[in-house]
Design brief:
- The chain is α/β, with parallel strands linked by helices.
- It has a single domain (3-265), classed as TIM Barrel, CATH 3.20.20.
- The protein has helices at 3-14, 25-30, 37-51, 63-66, 70-85, 100-111, 133-142, 158-161, 170-182, 228-232, 245-248, 255-265, and strands at residues 18-21, 57-60, 89-96, 120-123, 145-151, 164-165, 168-169, 188-192, 213-215, 239-243.
- The protein has an eight-stranded parallel β-barrel, surrounded by six helices. A two-stranded antiparallel sheet has the order 6-7.
- It is globular.
């Protein structure tokens, strides 16, 4: 079963929510855990346990593990294996982007059979959309997906992403290229933050037609899950909303309750 089919299957039972695993120094301290790979692994396992029967998609933020070096990679490798073994879809929030054999290596690491294999990964199109082709091919071969950064939530993002060339915004151009490359398989999606309107990001819901959308910015970052349809319009049924800080901020004893609150926001 390919990625989009699995998302649809999970959404029918658990809804489309995705929960991030973001073991920052601040969040680990709030949980009373060491700022170490072992602390990150413990936090991740508590989150995975809380997801059971509630949520079907998890998104480890790779940067929070990389800072611990080899031990951090061992921790995220364990979490990826445990999550996928439990039937969860895993999106590696790696934001890789490069050219030639370097991009091939990133794609091999995160999408092909191996210790870090996930079901999907995030990538950056700044080196050029065609530079991401190795990731697109790897995703197709593994029946996974790639999410291309399109309109992110950081405050100064519109400076670049809403800039226009020949009357078309950069973000709309990225969405168009993603739609063309996915060839209706939805193996190539986009990342669109939820903290600003599509218009202010240089997009319309029509630009997202036929695309899977991974959307951070809900919960602690300010966007409300109950406003999903208002934010994304006709594209809302294909959005995978993600939450992280609002779940982690609840503390280890209340992760499940925080997830339940978010599911209620979605009407589930």
């Amino acid at each position: 079963m390919d990625f989009v089919s699995r998302v649809a299957e999970l959404s029918s039972t658990h809804g489309p929510l995705c929960v991030g695993i973001d073991p920052s120094a601040e969040s680990l301290a709030g949980w009373g855990l060491a700022d170490s790979a072992d602390g990150a692994l413990e936090m991740g396992r508590v989150i995975l346990s809380a997801l059971a029967g509630r949520v079907g998609i998890v998104k480890p933020q790779i940067g929070y593990f990389e800072r611990f070096g080899a031990a951090g990679y061992a921790a995220v490798e364990s979490l990826i294996h445990e999550a996928r073994s439990a039937g969860l879809l895993v999106i590696a929030d790696a934001k890789r982007g490069d050219i030639g054999s370097t991009m091939e290596s990133y794609a091999s690491a995160w999408l092909e059979a191996g210790p870090l294999q996930c079901d999907a990964m995030t990538v950056s199109p700044y080196p050029g959309f065609e530079a991401l082709e190795p990731a697109f091919r790897a995703a197709e071969h593994a029946r996974g997906a790639v999410f291309v950064l399109c309109a992110t939530s950081n405050p100064d993002a519109p400076t670049v992403q809403a800039a226009r060339t020949d009357g078309v915004s950069v973000s709309a151009l990225i969405a168009r290229r993603a739609r063309e490359r996915s060839r209706n398989t939805q193996s190539v999606g986009v990342v669109v933050g939820a903290t600003r309107s599509l218009e202010s990001s240089g997009l319309t819901d029509g630009d997202l037609d036929g695309l899977l959308v991974l959307s951070p910015g809900f919960g602690a970052q300010g966007a409300a899950l109950s406003d999903l349809a208002t934010i994304f319009g006709a594209a809302a049924p294909r959005v995978i909303p993600t939450v992280s800080r609002s779940v982690l901020g609840a503390g280890p004893a209340a992760v499940g309750a925080a997830i339940d609150n978010h599911l209620r926001e979605l009407g589930l």
